[in-house]
């Protein structure tokens, strides 16, 4: 049951999504979901949601909407100018918005995608347990101008009356600077013999044909010297493929679950988030890491997010106690 709605004045290239369709691949359906998983998790953590809750993925273009109930929201991912009734508010922090105020996120920069979560999340349709869009199945898609999305919970704002600001200042992990993409060796690396290291020699240019399915890029291509045919088989998200032609292909979360091109390398989970923020026309570099190093960095990321989750839980517990003492009601 919803508490209210947010209505879009300007929707840009916005989708309602989550962390993806985990049950999808067993049925031959791509996992999809937020391309920058880390930023999506941070946005939900900042408002006290579960990591897997639906949120907005905002790609490049400006967004403007109005809630008809009080909400608490947070923006993470690429930088942008977040305003509430034309007053600048911080990204990577919870922000209270009163019913009828206009929220805008403009001039996204330093990346391609921002993620906006609302405390209590959204009430939206699901397919195989996920609201992530799937263009092949015709499920979900871009939010349209004038569309209204149901909000599950209204959250009364708590302000500091002396400084007219929220009563929190959270230590949020920042995204790594630059576009360096870590990869481990793929199952077909031996097929490329002495040319495999070309992947690390020079930057690659991301082309405009890139999307949720994969990123296409030009640069010094390794050459497959093995002559046998590659049979169609399961491929992971992050597979670096070398198809015939003049482009390198990195499969992302919208990829099909099978493919028949040789897999030279596999992008680490952390660097998949980096790929989500690279714009067409920008350049990136690949860097080889061991599977052990990739696993260690993934564990370090989880520790950072757990620490943030603990901060947020402590803050909301304190704010609920303060709200109950002063108004007789909790935050939510």
Brief description of this entry?
With 332 residues, the chain is an alpha+beta fold. It has 3 helices and 21 strands. The strands form 4 sheets. Strands 1, 2, 3, 4, 5, 6, 7, 8, 9 and 10 form a 10-stranded antiparallel beta sheet that branches. Strands 13-20-17-18-15-14-21 form a 7-stranded mixed beta barrel. Strands 11-12 form a two-stranded antiparallel ribbon.
Structure description:
InterPro entries: CT_A_B, Cyclophilin-like_dom_sf, PxpC. The chain has three helices and 21 strands. α1 runs parallel beside α3. The protein is of the alpha+beta class. β11 and β12 form a beta hairpin. It has two domains: 172 residues, no CATH class; 110 residues, Cyclophilin-like (Cyclophilin), CATH 2.40.100.10.
Fraction of residues in helices? 10-25%
Please write the string of helix (H) and strand (E) elements: EEHEEEEEEEEEEEEEEEEEEHEH
Radius of gyration: 21 Å
Number of strands: 21
Number of helices: 3
Q: Pick out the low-confidence regions.
A: 161-165
| Alpha-beta classification | alpha+beta
- In round numbers, the mean pLDDT is 90
C-alpha end-to-end distance: 15 Å
**Residue fraction in strands:** 25-35%
Cα shape? elongated
Q: What profile does the largest beta sheet have? A: 10 strands, antiparallel
Q: How many domains comprise the coordinates?
A: 2
Protein name: Biotin-dependent carboxyltransferase family protein
InterPro entries: CT_A_B (IPR003778), Cyclophilin-like_dom_sf (IPR029000), PxpC (IPR052708)
Keywords: ATP-binding, Hydrolase, Nucleotide-binding
């Amino acid at each position: 049951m919803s508490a209210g709605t947010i209505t879009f004045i300007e929707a840009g290239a916005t989708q309602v999504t989550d962390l993806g369709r985990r049950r999808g691949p067993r049925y031959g359906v791509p996992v999809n979901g937020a391309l920058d998983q880390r930023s999506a998790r941070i946005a939900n953590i900042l408002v006290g949601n579960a990591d897997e809750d639906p949120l907005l993925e905002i790609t490049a273009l400006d967004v403007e909407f109005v809630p008809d109930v009080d909400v608490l929201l947070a923006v993470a991912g690429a930088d942008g100018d977040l305003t509430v009734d034309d007053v600048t508010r911080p990204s990577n922090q919870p922000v209270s918005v009163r019913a009828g105020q206009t929220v805008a996120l403009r001039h996204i920069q330093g990346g391609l995608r921002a993620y906006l979560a609302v405390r209590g999340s959204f009430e939206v349709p699901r397919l195989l347990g996920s609201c992530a869009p799937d263009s092949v199945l015709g499920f979900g898609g871009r939010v349209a101008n004038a569309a209204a999305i149901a909000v599950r919970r209204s959250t009364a704002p708590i302000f500091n009356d002396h400084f007219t600001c929220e009563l929190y200042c959270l230590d949020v992990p920042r995204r790594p600077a630059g576009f360096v993409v870590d990869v481990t060796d793929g199952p077909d690396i031996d097929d490329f013999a002495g040319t495999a290291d070309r992947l690390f020699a020079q930057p690659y240019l991301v082309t405009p044909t890139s999307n949720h399915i994969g990123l296409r890029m030009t640069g010094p291509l390794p050459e497959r010297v093995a002559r046998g045919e590659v049979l169609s088989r399961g491929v992971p998200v992050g597979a670096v493929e070398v198809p015939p032609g003049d482009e390198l292909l990195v499969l992302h979360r919208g990829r099909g679950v099978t493919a028949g091109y040789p897999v030279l390398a596999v992008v680490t989970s952390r660097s998949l988030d980096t790929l989500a923020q690279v714009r067409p026309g920008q350049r990136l570099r690949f860097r080889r890491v061991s599977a052990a190093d990739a696993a260690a960095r993934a564990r370090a990321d989880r520790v950072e997010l757990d620490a943030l989750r603990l901060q947020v839980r402590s803050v909301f517990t304190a704010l609920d106690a303060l709200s109950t003492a002063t108004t007789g009601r909790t935050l939510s």
